[in-house]
Design brief:
Length: 108
């Protein structure tokens, strides 16, 4: 099964990629190679082969989850550019006029 140029463009659209015309041909060839490889995999006899999630045995190398004392509120606010009443002061974020619930037509 070979992918057509239109199918590659549709895949690009679904992936939200802007594909240039000269790139589509190369991508079409690469995707067709991937599809061909997947078709070859279907032909393998996998009777009795256990599914795996990884080719080697992996072990987690994470440290134990031990609770530790964190920063106090005052220590956390030491490097804040602005703080007020035990909280960070940040610039106010305003919605764009078109997104505002109160418009001139809708306000009473």
């Amino acid at each position: 099964m070979a992918l057509t140029r239109a199918e590659v463009q549709k895949i690009g659209l679904i992936a939200r990629l802007k594909l240039e015309d000269d790139a589509i041909e190369g991508l079409q060839e690469e995707l067709n190679n991937i599809v061909h490889f997947a078709e070859q995999m279907k032909e393998l006899n996998l009777e009795g082969v256990e599914p795996t999630t990884h080719s080697t045995e992996l072990t987690d190398s994470l440290r134990d989850d031990v609770p530790v004392v964190g920063l106090t509120r005052d220590d956390a606010l030491l490097n804040a550019p602005q703080a007020k009443d035990g909280a960070f002061v940040v610039p106010r974020i305003k919605a764009a006029p078109s997104m505002s619930a109160d418009t001139e037509e809708g306000s009473a």
